[in-house]
Amino acid sequence: MSGPGRSAGRCSRASAGSCTSGRLRRSTAVAEASTGTQTVGASDTDADKLVAQHIPTVVVDDLHVVYRVHGAGSGKGSATSALSRILSKRRSPSVREVHAVRGVSFIAYKGESIGLIGSNGSGKSTLLKAVAGLLPAERGSVYTEGQPSLLGVNAALMNDLTGERNVILGGLAMGMTQEEIRTRYDEIVEFSGINEKGDFISLPMRTYSSGMSARLRFSIAAAKSHDVLMIDEALATGDAKFQRRSEQRIRELRKEAGTVFLVSHNNKSIRDTCNRVIWLEKGELMMDGPTDEVIKAYEKENKR
Ligand SMILES: Nc1ncnc2c1ncn2[C@@H]1O[C@H](COP(=O)(O)OP(=O)(O)OP(=O)(O)O)[C@@H](O)[C@H]1O
């Protein structure tokens, strides 16, 4: 393992399994353009064979993430009051800390598709952002193999540019060459289904519905195999047909040797695409294990 802050004990502390890779690096990268019915758990797929090799892609070690909210509770959080404070050199009236992730540790392996579940505000998105290098760790460490890509429904492509331009922009942001983008362009547009009801790809993205934007973002991100792909609720916005297609693509990405993280409140999506689930509550890791086991425990807890 390489990267600052490495220590011999880290891998074994993080979770079960051994840390055999010599290529993991500490996560500092800024994420790129921020995204059935088949059961994956027990089948003898290529992805399952990869998982069995135990090649780590992400090591999260006792991770804590804290947000600091300036001006919280004072009722003076506006830009004008902040400017007046700066000019008068007064200190911010109050800073509230939100401890969003508390001591989470796990190791993700090549070929795994990991669902992140938990109630609203339990820290799922924050954990993904920290793994992507978008949020700093207050304490603990994150090591990743390769470049993690966070695909969120709020990921910023350029709303004033056409869908067509955004496909190119998103492709470049993910490290594809112009030639690769040209080759895959038709495939991306077709997968997104944006043109099913007319020539929408030549219109600016601001004219798209939220579902259409999410579909295009997912299609761009899914056009490339990722070392670590993190998808935050992207499937929730597409219609049923698109969801099935996306789930199929997630299974393929998993086979293409990467690791996929999927945040979702839809337990069926998680069951259909993930072989492992991490359950968070109040920023703490409640359970980490095979999909069926964790979802069963989560559903039992939520029936109370
Ligand atoms: N930018 C922010 N500033 C301050 N606090 C934040 C910020 N973003 C999230 N939080 C807080 O961090 C905690 C975890 O939020 P997070 O969005 O990670 O939860 P989540 O599990 O993804 O929730 P959901 O299922 O509702 O999307 C919450 O208490 C939330 O209020």
Automatic annotation (TrEMBL):
Organism: Peterkaempfera bronchialis
ABC transporter domain location: 84-304
Family under the similarity heading: Belongs to the ABC transporter superfamily.
UniProt-recorded Gene Ontology molecular function terms: ABC-type transporter activity; ATP binding; ATP hydrolysis activity
Keyword DNA damage on entry: no
InterPro entries reported in the protein's UniProt record: AAA+_ATPase (IPR003593), ABC_transporter-like_ATP-bd (IPR003439), ABC_transporter-like_CS (IPR017871), ABC_transpr_TagH-like (IPR015860), Bact_Polysacc_Export_ATP-bd (IPR050683), P-loop_NTPase (IPR027417)
Ranges annotated as biased composition (Low complexity): 1-19
Pfam families: ABC_tran (PF00005)
UniProt protein name: ABC transporter ATP-binding protein
Keyword Aminoacyl-tRNA synthetase: no
Keywords from the named record: ATP-binding, Nucleotide-binding, Transport
SMART domains tied to this protein: AAA
Residue ranges, annotated region (Disordered): 1-42
PROSITE patterns found in the cross-reference section: ABC_TRANSPORTER_1, ABC_TRANSPORTER_2
A GO CC annotation given for this chain: membrane
Domain of life (superkingdom): Bacteria
